[in-house]
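Before relying on records like the one below, remember that each one covers exactly one chain. Contacts with other chains, cofactors or solvent are not represented anywhere in the record.
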Amino acid sequence: MTIKVAVIGASGRMGKEVVRMVLADEQLQLVSAVAPSYEGQDAGFIVGSELTGVTVVSTLEEALSSTKADVMVDFTVPHLAYEHAKLSIEYGVRPIMGTTGFTPEQIAELELLCNDKGIGGLIAPNFSIGAILMMKFAQEAAKYMPHVEIIEYHGDQKLDAPSGTSIKTAELIAQTRQELRQGNPNEQETIEGARGGYYEGFRIHSVRLPGVFAQQEVIFGGNGQTLKLRHDSYDRAGYMPGVNVAVKKVMKYVGLVYGFEHIMD
């Protein structure tokens, strides 16, 4: 069965990689691309490929109403993510959200909507296999070394902080580690925010600099030792094997899944 895919934010840095991935896979068919700056043009112009026969549109609703997509892939911006996912589900199209910024309440609502429609959906802070392994290893390490901090690095144009990957990592750590307020109980920040964001007793630090792509360190400290888990991404193409798996697996279950790790195996 060929899976029909709509790509939202198709002219963005991640969106272009998704379009390339879909066009390169015979099991997938690009049926719609949303990119206002390319409206009316063939989707192939977005990635410099041959003509695809798919005309670029400017809105998600136009994409969903004019095609019979099976899956919608969204790598746009956090403040639009919830509305995009909700609209996709209303049209019976399975959302795959690489965009972060969902609240727990929004995730719960989208899960109910997916179940009501009898379709699957996925919200994934990270599609990199290496990053998912880092999260799993961090969750395991927290059982034995509960003193931990997270440092995540991204380019200076990233809109949300901390990153969705670091939040997901923190949530997994919290599942195996009781809340433990770290550091000296009398410590004081002479510059506000110097100790980073507080989560379940430990800290998350967000670095935003030009020239940085995406890295994360999870640092564990114990008596006389430290353990550092680090993942580095160098190119957006590294996320595409995970997106490809997600597009195919979302067709096989009902309900919303939060975290790519749940469909890796």
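The longest strand covers residues 214-222.
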